[in-house]
């Protein structure tokens, strides 16, 4: 199964700081591999990360800077700090579904499948009806991931999720293959 990478830089442009965030569909591109998580002694940093950390120290509720910091952590494959930063955003903006999708992506990249599944579940439950059309690709992937995670322990639930995935993206070959496997 391929993983999806979020272009959070585009996501940041849509962040509205008037007491909440406007919705923007997280853009996705498919990648064939994911870098391994960093251990604590390998944490990478750069001047951008350090500058953003200082901005956030001055204003811990600055969601735009937090999103930029989370993206910067992802850019250097610092998945633990990326997850922690996306979590801070979801506390400040609990109804903003892209933060949960981004958490799921970071967890998945860190090979933390259990928490990735939980974050994808939170994402699909947070997408508002008016956001569904713009979120179809991300919803399809989230449901595919959850179905994949559920296939051995709860095949009936996995069938429900893969059906939803295919409703949002009927062309996804991975979803088609999983659906065939689950229904055979």
Q: Could you characterize what this model shows?
A:
The chain has 184 residues and is mainly alpha-helical. Helices cover 60% and strands 5% of the residues. It contains 9 helices and 2 strands, in the order E-H-E-H-H-H-H-H-H-H-H. It has helices at 8-13, 47-58, 63-75, 79-92, 97-109, 113-126, 136-150, 155-168, 173-182, and strands at residues 3-7, 27-31. The chain has a two-stranded antiparallel sheet. Helix 4 packs antiparallel against helix 5 (97-109), helix 5 (97-109) packs antiparallel against helix 6 and helix 6 (113-126) packs across helix 7. The relative contact order is 0.12.
Could you give the order of strands across the largest sheet?
A: 1-2
Instruction: Using the alpha-carbon principal axes, give the shape.
Output: elongated
Mean of pLDDT? 81
| Unreliable runs | 1-42
Instruction: Provide the gyration radius in Å.
Output: 17 Å
List the secondary-structure elements in sequence, H or E: EHEHHHHHHHH
**Beta strands, count:** 2
The percentage helix is 55-70%
Structural class of the secondary structure composition? Answer: mainly alpha
Major sheet size, sense and barrel closure: 2 strands, antiparallel
Residue share in β-strands: 5-15%
List the total number of helices: 9
Q: How far apart, in Å, are the first and last alpha carbons? A: 19 Å
